[in-house]
Amino acid sequence: MDIPLLDLRAQYAGLKDEIDGAVGEVLSQAAFIGGPRVKAIEEAVAECCGVSHGVACGNGTDALFLILANLGIGKGDEIITTPFTFVASAESIVHVGAVPVFVDIEPGTYNMDVGQLEAAVTERTKAIMPVHIFGQCVDMDPVREAAKRHGLAVIEDACQAIGATYRGVRAGALGDAAAFSFFPSKNLGCAGDGGMIVTDDAELAAKAKKMASHGTSKKYFHDAMGVNSRLDSLQAAILLEKLPHLDDWNAGRRAAAAVYDELLADSGLALPETRDFGEPVYHLYVVRSPDRDGIMAALKDAGIGTAVYYPRALHLQEVFGYLDYSEGDFPVVEAAQEEVFAIPLFPEITREQQERVAEVIAGATG
Predict the structure, then answer these.
(1) Helix, strand, coil % (nearest 5) of the chain?
(2) Which of 46, 135, 145, 165 qualifies as a cystine partner to 54, CB 3.0-4.6 A?
């Protein structure tokens, strides 16, 4: 029984007629850039998050960049974030000329250790960028309290966490602005790249929207420097068909995670920890073992998908060598990168498939 890490074919099969119809309509109208579908998905995602404004853009990385750039963050400014994330989190900071400042993570959730924020603040700090890793929100009350004390912006990297909640509030409404990614593997994914900014700040939304379209709000008239970062109508049409199913899909992910919690309770693996302040959406189900390589090899031999998120923390990546971090600076991150790996989890996964995954793991660890 082959079991993929994520089964996008199963998701498509469940919505084939709706998605094919929506795509066909866009193609027949030959209206590919901007238009009512993009506006509709901006409004729908903003409403889903409980905020006033959505700004569609080319991808999640651009969403972060556009937020930073239009909050006036630039050369020499410092942004506190985590080194245990996809490179885009820190990449966006560097692209506006600012400096990523890392803090270590919690061992069980792999989220930013908010207890380390205060020590990381300097006179150059302008913002905190919590990353809701693997679909669970960072403990945001301490983040917002630190930001208020020091006059800092809070920018949520919610690219893995659409639909997750913190004390009853959805990711995307927990800071000054937030970024989402619609990369195909995300909980809400399109058929290519796509991203979204959500915020209650009307001025920020307007600036970001203009910047994402070559710095213009009227075609061929430019009063600001911009970039080309647009969500096309095909992707918007697909997202509009998928968004109404997001909550059910996230509930399915939580149910599947509960099955793994049961099946793997005695496996010897360290299972994901959750906090009682909100509902995670399990973008990934990440487990941990000192014998990661052996277990992953057994899963691969059995036709079961698995992957490492993340094998090398950002502070140890060559591209960030100029920041002068060294091995040993963030021991929790560095221990995690040697042991963590993801196992199959998606809304359509069956208990039979999960039992097979658990069986192979038991064979590899027994």
Answers:
(1) 45, 15, 40
(2) 46
Quote the pLDDT of residue 1: 76
SS3 at position 285: strand
> What's the pLDDT score for residue 224?
87
pLDDT score of 62: 98
Q: What is the pTM of this model?
A: 0.96
Looking at residue 223, its pLDDT comes to 86
Domain residues for the domain of 326 are 246-365
Alpha-carbon dihedral 72, 78, 79, 81, rounded to 10 degrees: 170
DSSP summary character for residue 67: H
- Residue 339 tokens, joined: 């042991």
The number of distinct structural domains making up the chain is 2
First-last CA distance in the chain: 21
3-state secondary structure 134-189: HHCCCCHHHHHHHHHHHCCEEEEECCCCCCCEECCEECCCCCCEEEEECCCCCCCC
Q: Of 184, 209, 244, which one is at a domain's C-terminal end?
A: 244
pLDDT score recorded for residue 220: 87
- From 244, 277, 312, the end of a domain falls on 244
Kindly give the parts of the chain with pLDDT less than 70.
none
Length of the chain as a residue count: 366
